[in-house]
């Protein structure tokens, strides 16, 4: 699959899954713009990606920041939007603000990013939204987070209908051994990974490369639109 001459925007491209997608796209011939909140993280990522990459600040929790980010963008051929931070709590424990947090950050953050990118899309542009396999198999104590991922998957189908011929798809990963988890305390991470291994058909967590493969496929395949791909090792089925 060639991305030669194409321009990819990755919000949350400074680390984890977003960074690996940016790296793959550059290797395939694209130019990339990565966005995130930490300038240091963006600078370090750009240094690794080389001259085909540029960076700009964005906070997907702040609509004005999303608008500023896209004001500086000339053209979007591909958009991937994994950048979000939110809190997860049980239905019983979460106050309203905590319950709203994944919706504010992950749902509305991506909704607004696609909206702001709209005037910049090329005729054959493609979008991949970030969800999570909790949509299909809700964890014991994360009701609002699970529902938010379900809403993102429906948003992906709705935007595929409304924005065609722009293609819109969704990636819905299970637990992935990414920077996000490496930043958490080791005992917590190991317990979460062991539990996920028990719960998935393939008996392990996924890798960043495996999710990046799925995202690159959805971004680049011209006949894919309105789909959600579960990059989850069979977690949703067990
Ligand atoms: N890893 C998993 O197990 C897993 C499973 C299912 C779904 N996901 C989804 O995938 C997303 C990315 O995961 P990852 O593992 O790649 O995490 P990661 O390594 O922490 O990457 C998240 C990136 O997004 C940026 N970001 C965070 N909040 C942002 C905001 N408000 N505005 C703009 N950028 C923001 C971060 O940079 P700054 O902090 O500098 O902004 C960071 O570069 C998660 O948020 C989650 O929705 C992950």
UniProtKB/TrEMBL annotation:
Alphabetized Pfam families for the sequence: adh_short_C2
Q: Which UniProt keywords apply?
A: Oxidoreductase
Keyword Methyltransferase recorded = no
Q: Which InterPro entries match?
A: NAD(P)-bd_dom_sf, SDR_DHRS6-like, SDR_fam
Record-stated family: Belongs to the short-chain dehydrogenases/reductases (SDR) family.
The name on file for this protein is: SDR family oxidoreductase
């Amino acid at each position: 699959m060639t991305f030669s001459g194409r321009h990819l925007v990755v919000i949350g491209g400074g680390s984890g899954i977003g960074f690996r997608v940016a790296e793959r796209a550059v290797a395939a011939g694209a130019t990339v713009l990565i966005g995130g909140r930490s300038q240091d993280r963006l600078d370090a990522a750009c240094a690794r990606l080389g001259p085909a990459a540029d960076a700009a600040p964005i906070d997907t929790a702040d609509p004005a920041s999303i608008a500023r980010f896209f004001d500086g963008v000339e053209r979007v051929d591909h958009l991937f939007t994994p950048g979000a931070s939110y809190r997860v709590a049980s239905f019983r424990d979460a106050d309203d603000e905590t319950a709203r947090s994944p919706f504010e950050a992950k749902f509305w953050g991506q909704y607004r990013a696609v909206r702001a990118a709209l005037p910049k899309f090329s005729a054959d542009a493609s979008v991949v939204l970030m969800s999570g396999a909790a949509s299909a198999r809700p964890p014991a104590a994360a009701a609002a987070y699970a529902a938010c991922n379900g809403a993102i998957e429906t948003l992906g189908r709705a935007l595929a209908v409304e924005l065609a011929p722009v293609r819109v798809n969704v990636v819905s990963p299970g637990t992935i051994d990414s920077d996000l988890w490496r930043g958490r305390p080791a005992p917590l991470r190991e317990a979460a990974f062991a539990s996920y291994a028990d719960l998935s058909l393939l008996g392990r967590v996924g890798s960043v490369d495996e999710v990046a493969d799925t995202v690159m496929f959805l971004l680049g395949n011209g006949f894919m639109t309105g789909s959600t791909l579960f990059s989850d090792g069979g977690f949703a089925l067990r």
